[in-house]
What does this fold into?
Amino acid sequence: MLTASVASACEGLRDGPKGTVTQIVDGDTLMLDNGLVVRLIGIQAPHLGLGRPGLDDWPKAAASKQALSDLTLNKPVLLRYGGEPKDRYGRLLAQVFLRDTAGTWVQQQMLLEGMARVYSFPDNRACLPDLFAAETRARTGGLGIWSDPYYRVRRADRPADFSSLSGHYELVEGRVLKADKTGGRVYLNFGRYYKEDFTAVIDSRALRLFSDEHLDPLKLSGALVRVRGWVDLVDGPRVAITHPEQIEVLAVP
It folds into this structure.
């Protein structure tokens, strides 16, 4: 197994509760002996249907759950917070660290094994550079979920490929043809026909976060980027951008 030390990674977190892992719900959710339910913030594992109507298991979901079990079950852990500490379901939103000699960072380890993708929120953006690096290592190595076509990185210049992907979380790469601002939103257009081609849409609240980071998405015209988010099919395939880390700049013109 790969080892992920956290001696200098992900600084600035706030210590939370400790406990021992007693149950694995899926590849990014676990339960502790003190009754706490923990959502591993910063990653998204393949979903398990868990018997819920209309929800099927994603490919590799069982393998992801088993990987988290192998890593954490019956082991003591420390929870640490880098943003909003709890979701609307009462789950704790924490970075999870094994209380072992290496201080193994569970999210990073799951990404290194290719058993999850990076998944962030506007109010939980800590540690992302380290998590992206771990994901990239597994993806380029074709490990875990990255060996399954279901999780392949989509091409922005192939909008027809998105026809069955509404409601899917996807990684999409392409070159921005034009960045334009209209009605308080910025549109990153990847083709000439906005009602058919792939578009990333940045709303006004997200633009404030870009401004806070001294980032100007209007300067992305011509840049090669990787976008991640949930796909919808309104005026062609698109992804709503709620915070800057959903856009990785791969090359600038």
